[in-house]
User: Fold these one by one.
Assistant:
Number 1:
Amino acid sequence: MKQNQQLTDVIKPFNIVIFGGNGDLSKRKIIPALFHRYADNQFQVPFAIYCITRFAIDEVAFKQEVESFIQCENKKKVNDFFKHLSIITIEKNDEQHYQLLKTELESTKERQRIFYFSVPSDAFSEICDALNQTGLINTSSKVVLEKPLGHSLESSKKINDIISASFQEQQIFRIDHYLGKETVQNIMVLRFANHLFERAWNADNIESIQITVAESLGVEKRAGYYDKTGALLDMIQNHLLQLLCLVAMEPPSSLNPDAVRNEKLKVLQALRPFDRTSIKSDLVRGQYTRGIVNGEKLNSYMEDIDAYDSETETFVALRTFIDNWRWKNTPIFLRTGKRMKKKYSDIVINFKELPHNIFQDSKYPLRNKLIIRLQPEERIELVQLSKIPGPGGYRFKPISLKLDFMDSFQDRMPDAYERLIIDVIRGNQTLFMRYDELAAAWEWIESINNIWKKETSLILYESGSWGPGDQILSGNVKWQTDK
Ligand code: BG6
């Protein structure tokens, strides 16, 4: 019962040090997540948050900005929370500049130390060196790493070597915020706590699996990062593959972190690599051009990044296969894009058509569909055929049975970061990636990345459209774009 112990572990006193403390992620997600856990009285222990910045910043303006993302009307609660937060400016990663942080952390030696690296991964090495020189890493320390961890298998290995020279694997938390989303966690419950679906969860019964993460926004203020990364590495390599792992993995023997991660790893290892033929037939990469949405004129990607030339993709759609017993020859469609018609993410499980139709009505094929909607609403829908009431034979049509999370569970939906940060504090690694998972994901991604720019061309799509995926990939399965 080790895993249950871990899940219910009490929250021990902690200091969390956020490198990149003044960055967007820290202000929008990390600090607000800490606030909401605090406001829910989950931190009944001494704790402190240190935001590390490169340059001196205006503390009042910083807190005001963070407060705008916290969105809480209880000013007193917010102000009490801010008493736990300090800003430390560290201009250089060396022993001398780390003295102030050292003094702070040493004065509360008994607390666990969580180092949150919310900075580009090329800064990890210097930070680790400085933490080591200053003697700040101990056995109760943890490190949280934000993606992207490198830009290739080789560079991710280098980063991993640097981190593992200072931290043991059980101290390392590689975060993928999709795994903290409520509906994503619910995939585990849906599959492994219900009898109904698991029996039919295989190639005999399922015709295809389709995962879409569509965003309406463009690259916004992240041009520098995004143009070096693109949709394949920004979304498919992590978020979409992690969703696929949860949908396709074998039942783990327990919720023990390694039991779950072993099963996810097997899915990644069984993904069929792309080759020169499949890359042409089974993959589309696109980039958004100008468009008009609700009367508003939207820029092209090139205008957004202020460049004349870029081959970076903002859209990827692909068909792949998991070569194992359960999923043999079941097409898996993955699709993600920016500046699409609307923001929505879902996982659609298309069941096979029944072998024989006893009804005269043949308008609708006899098949079911399970839709796990991740955003904007969090909902599960089972599409089934139902008789249309009235005399005159058996006429039927598809009807959705809907379980809306907001209707069934009235509480506020916690942000993914809240769940994940609490897990870090508790030391539960179930929802974090182990390095071998990451390496397996990179290996598969490289089968695309190494050849696709030579073998395929970038297709332009209008901002506000559904991108170019349908034309080439849909086969007999249509993307669910009609919502
Ligand atoms: C991030 C990507 O990891 O996920 C962004 O870097 C993307 O480009 C974001 O916009 C999407 O997250 P969510 O939770 O809004 O779907």
Number 2:
Amino acid sequence: MDKISVIVSCYNEEESLPLFYKEMERVREKDFKDVDFEYIFVDDGSKDKTLEEIKELKNKDEKVKFISFSRNFGKEAAMLAGLEAANGDYITLMDADLQDPPALLRQMYDLIKNEGYDCIGTRRVTRKGEPPIRSFFARVFYKLINKMSDIEMVDGARDYRLMTKQMVKAIISLKEYNRYSKGLFSFVGFKTKWLEYENIERVAGETKWSFWKLLKYAIEGITAFSTTPLILCSVIGIVFCLISFLMIIVIISRTLMFGDPTSGWPSLVCIIFLVSGIQLFSLGIVGQYLSKTYLEVKQRPIYIIRETNINEL
Ligand code: UDP
Ligand code: MG
């Protein structure tokens, strides 16, 4: 009998978690009579009663395993911990807020089982219920990153996916500290099919992503999978050198022909501002890559476990 590992990353999800478990169990009992299950709940350093909720589930259901972090390490770290702990034949990643409908799972399983795919991903085709400004920046981000990176990032792709253990093995072999999963999934390749669905709003609680957090995550994605910004800095530098070279020739010849009436202070100030602005901007981009490299080189653990019921960890 096949076994599916369901990995659920939870950060302050005391309200959603029981609802998630109920719905997932309903689907499992209805659609998965022929498949074994294990649940891996990863408590990402929650400050509310999430861990207590998980332990309660563990006590009444032996399929439930859990990992609890020593602090909040972020969803990427939680997903990695789950993937490393999973031992099913097929592994799925889900959010605790039911935005990833468990009802799709059977269809995903059938596709992966019968049609030779390694991974069934999901993407939402609408962003209903999301602030319009957030949707707008998300669209811009996907346009940008797909232009800059060789790796394809699908707009609206969720982390909700069902994968074979072979693909999961490939993903956990990527040991980088700055993890941007959407890129990592795409990087490892394998045959992926996308299922589309309409956006579903979270059942309870609030989103953990502020605009600022999302912006940082977007920069993470770009620096992890593209070096185009660095090339851009060089190109801007070259263009400015060429312009200034032309200007030097023009100014020298003008002075030789017409003398030097020492004016042009305002234009000078403008030029200094523009050029030093561009310099700082470029330095910032270089700094981004340097800081990522710095963090990688330190080789800190991606997460630290405080408590778990999985023996191997
Ligand atoms: N999450 C997490 N660690 C974090 C932030 C979020 O494990 O630092 C989990 C969260 O509990 C949820 C999932 O990641 O199960 C997605 O978070 P959320 O629903 O807030 O994001 P959104 O759906 O709004 O993008
Ligand atoms: Mg959500």
Number 3:
Amino acid sequence: MRHFLTLKDFTATELKQLINRAIELKHIQKSGEIYQPLKNKVLAMIFDKSSTRTRVSFESAMIQFGGGAIFLSPNDTQLGRGEPVEDSARVISSMVDAVMIRTFEHAMVERFAEYSSVPVINALTDDYHPCQLLADMQTYVEHRGSIEGKTVAWIGDGNNMCHSYINAAEQFGFNLNIATPVGYEPKADIVSASTADISLCHDMKTAVKNTDLIVTDVWASMGQEEEQKKREHAFADFQVDNDVMTLANSDALFMHCLPAHRGEEVSADVIDGGQSVVWDEAENRLHAQKALLEFLCVSD
Ligand code: CP
Ligand code: NVA
């Protein structure tokens, strides 16, 4: 049994195969072919934070695959009233075929996985968002081919998305330039654990020069709402606008995991412009997670 808590839970080869499979599954879906490898299977979806894309993509994936999904919010479960994670993991996993969790502390998904009898998928923690990276990598491959040897610029907060880009740089073999305000760098242990070519700086313009993909994210993530004002001040020089895009390679793409704040981390003309692939990126959550569910839940 395998879990998907970070990109490092899979080998580079497995991840590449998963991206290729996601592209195939997208074609199958678009052709109208019915493909139901998860008939009668159930995915439990534990959401301690809000979601649009993650919930809709996982739930649709399970329905289209012939199974079903159960949405569990802390308002309605005993987990939300303090039932231990270990007990919840044993009970929930005894009734379903896989569990997807979106929560705060990364240690919670690790603890759940330890006591779960079925695969556990990390659908975002304070530290990582690996499912989003599957969709991002699929999107890059579809538009530009292999990302190996390319250079990606991460602009903004050294947050969960940034940490998953650090993991992806190693697994998919791209170079990563990270530009953050002082004090908002990615966690040092995650950077130092990576064998990828990663450079950190505090100047967005230096980071984007000659890059193939520019990625940003909100300045205040879920759980940091009370820091919004302070962060608006700290991140004022970190908006990806057209001037920034012109410093990158002429065929560079723009990605954002969404939800986005136009006028903060990205200008409207960039996110709604010709280099932006954010809508494909969002749709690919469905196809990439189908490949992931198939990998984890279908035995050969
Ligand atoms: N990108 C992403 O995970 O979106 P949601 O928060 O809407 O799920
Ligand atoms: N960094 C953001 C990503 C949202 C999908 C957050 O954690 O809120």
Number 4:
Amino acid sequence: MSRTPIIAGNWKMHGSLTFVKEMMSELATMLPAKINYDVAVFPVYIHLHEVINTKPEQVWCGAQNLSEYDDGAVTGEVSGKMLADLGCDMVLVGHSERRVKSRESNAEVAKKFAQALKYGLTPVLCVGESLVERQSNQTFAVVWAQIQAVLSLIGVEQLGHGVIAYEPVWAIGTGETATAEQAQEVHQFIRSQLAAKDVTMARQIRLLYGGSCKGSNAFELFSMPDVDGGLIGGASLTAEDFMAICREAKKLMNETQSS
Ligand code: 13P
């Protein structure tokens, strides 16, 4: 089964209204009207409205986080209901920067995943191990515990309505990319674990790779059988760099479709 790759730009805490306007107009010029891959961008909350109002139709917009609550006395948080109301399509949950800096637990991340689904948003569950965990052979255990928390809360069928992004923490923003084989090994692990619970869901769910992905390494990574695109940080901050990655996805899809 062929899965459509997603090229997702996580802008993190970067940008300004001027940046958003320029990016959207550049993407509108550079992106063909018909694409055979999916594209999404994830700006900070306060730039979502501008992105939604100015983005080309083929680009999805997502938030970088959401509250685990519906609404109420939760100062500083934004709910899934509000994101859906604004017109968001997707939302990141459990990015490692939030797991580490805001101490989000697996259980909290699972609640956020469920909240996203409740309001019709596609959650992108970010998972991944630290360098110390990799060096002590804990990669599979860490990644599976992160996924298992969501499975225990909502089950395999519901998890299948989201996307999983494998982002080894040691590869994020470091310029050190996981090799295509390292990425594939973890992606294959995730897919086979899921297949033990639900074969159809495991075949369909899209597994993105994130961590220093750029135009020069995207093709090799995306060519791996269980890698279905990328969650891009630094290289999503200029239209040129981001489009270079999109072109690799297109190349791969063209090759797959003609073979
Ligand atoms: P970099 O592409 O900058 O390494 O960031 C990856 C990431 O964290 C995307 O969510």
